[in-house]
Structures are given as C-alpha cells and as structure tokens.
Amino acid sequence: MLAVEARGLTKTFRTGWLHRRRTEALRGVSLEVPRGAIFGLLGPNGAGKTTLLSILATLLLPDAGSATVLGLDVVRESLAVRRRLNMASGNASFVWSLRPAEVLMFYGRLYGLSGGALRRRVEELVELCELTSHRKTEYNELSTGLKQRLAFAKALLNEPEVLFLDEPTLGLDPDVSIRIRAQIARLRRERGTTIILTTHYMREAEELCDDIAFIKAGRILAQGAPDAL
Known about the structure:
The chain has one domain: Rossmann fold (3-Layer(aba) Sandwich). Helices cover about 35% and strands about 30% of the residues. It has seven helices and ten strands. A six-stranded mixed sheet has the order 6-7-8-3-9-10, with helices on both faces. It has a four-stranded antiparallel sheet with strand order 2-1-4-5. Strand 9 (about 210-215) and strand 10 form a beta hairpin.
C-alpha cells in the first residue's frame, strides 16, 4: 500500500508589487511513496521541495492536482491526515524562553497527550534525541544542532505514521548530522515510519533513502533508486 501519492500537483504564488509576478513553485508533480520507505527530494533552493512537503502536510492548498496520505485526501480529509503525520523543518522556531522539555510538553498537549502519558513521552524523546544534558537551557541558548534535534523530537510526539523532514541536517556539524541520520534510520527500522525528507546532499540521500527524486523549477526531472541515478 502507498503511504503517499501525488498526481499533477501545481502551485503558483503571486509576489512583487500588487502581486503581479507569478512564481510557479510546482508544475504537475506526481510521485508515489510506499509504506515504510524513506524517500528523498533533492534540488536547489527554490526548486519546490518545501512547497511539495507543505501541501502533503496540509499546510498549503494545491492549485490543481490531488494527493493522498495513507489513503486520505490532503484537502478533503485534512484533519484526519494531520492526526497521522508530522513535520520537522530546519527553519523551525519555538518560544525562546522555553526549555526543551517545556517545548515538548506544550506541543504534546496540542496533540492530545496529558498526565503521565505526556510526561513519559517527553522523557523518552529527550533521551532519544540526546537533549538530557540540556534540560535547563532555554531555546534561544541552544546550538543550531540542538535546535534541530528538538524540532525532530517535537515531530515524533504523536508517533506519526508518516514523517516529513525539511532539510533535517542543514547547517549542522558533520558529527551532529551523523547522529540525526542515525535517528532517522532507527525510526524507520524500529517503528516502520514512512519518511520523506528534503536535502541538498546526495551522499545523505544515498545513505538513507530507498528512492529519490530530483526536482528543479517545480518539476521532477528524475526518480528512482539512488544507485540507479
């Protein structure tokens, strides 16, 4: 069964003075991602990677085309889709004065967790994402790598069946990137989570992904197994 399916997705943004300039972010994008797979989207800045993830995550509406996540339409059944996925972005930001566990407690409540179940889940993720020694550090004092790990932990709070990761290792030191990639691989191995990630790094895609797609100017140029492209 497919975890994610997209057919002919298009999205145009209007920018500039009086919104007269049209920017075609997606131009008829189609893809299929099987359950339990790690799928990579590679391309330059402005290629459409984040726009595609945002549509699949129900954060943006497409202008045309259709998409489903776990068989649910991302437009007509968006609330049901959101309950079964999550998304982490390298550009995520949280309340500066909160500490890591406080950030996770806040979002955990939004996801419907409470009481002992919430506390246990937060403790599990603080340990999993190696945030234990930074419990007392406010968000604005965390390094870029620790902020990335916290965003990753937040995306796991609701134990999503499908996880979207937008540039999960962007700007990180090599040793931190290695740990993030290990956590991604472990998540698929131990939980069977379907993961779609965007990246600039071919080596990262080769290491993690079952299939990858190259996207440029809103079009998918090639798709297949990393060793075949």
